[in-house]
Amino acid sequence: MSSKRIKKASKLGANYSRDFNLSSNLRVLVDIGFAKKTSILKLDVIEKINSMLNINCELYTTSCLLKECELIGHILQKTHDVMNTFNLIKCNHKYNPKIGAVKCVSRYLQLWSGAATADNVKTEDRHHLGEIRFWSLATTDKELITIGKNTVGLPLFFLSYSCIQLLSYGKASENYLKKKQLDILNNVVSIWLYLLDLSCIQY
Ligand SMILES: [Zn+2]
After folding, report:
1. What is d(CA 126, CA 72) in angstroms, rounded to the nearest whole number?
2. What's the pLDDT tens digit per position in 5-50?
3. How far is the CA of 64 from the centre of ligand 1 (A)?
4. pLDDT tens across 110-158, in order?
5. Contact, 26 vs 116, CB < 8 A?
6. Is 68 exposed, middle or buried (0-12, 13-18, 19+ CB in 10 A)?
7. pTM of the model
8. How far is the CA of 167 from the centre of ligand 1 (A)?
9. Which residues hold their Cβ within 5 A of ligand 1, which is an ion?
10. Spatial separation of the C-alpha atoms in residues 187 and 21, rounded to whole Å
11. What is the Å distance from ligand 1's center to 137 Cα?
């Protein structure tokens, strides 16, 4: 990867840390397409993400994705073997071929996004949320990329020119951050108006 791309990814990673509490341990949910292509390209996903963001990461898959891989058959046998080495998220439902794994993965994304933006977390819940807070997605699926762009605070890895890249903030994250800044500004203005009011009463 060129030094320009590494610099851009590092800057983006720093932004995620600042804006969404991205920790130094990142869990990456890998879909079938991403696992297949990186395996063909012989890319070491953990090593690449580490060099891009200077972050430790672990690869995960879901039981739905594994099942879908199995059902497609021998064409994806090698991909299935690779994904079998990842950590497993056991879905608490039966795989439904009519719905497919994308629907299931998109539900996880919503859950993780909620955790990434949870500002008012009770102290006793922090550890639990901390466990699910630092997730990201690695995908080649167009539908999942669109969903990822619309998910607040979710780092998304994709493939371009045989390289792993980190997607820039989507509109959802940008709008969330703008609203957060506006809320802070409104609070400051409210405090100033309150103090001004107090000083008027005193005189
Ligand atoms: Zn599932």
Report:
1. 40
2. 778 888 888 888 788 777 677 889 999 999 999 999 999 999 998 8
3. 4
4. 777 765 565 544 444 444 444 445 788 999 999 999 988 888 888 899 9
5. no
6. buried
7. 0.80
8. 24
9. 64, 91, 104
10. 22
11. 15
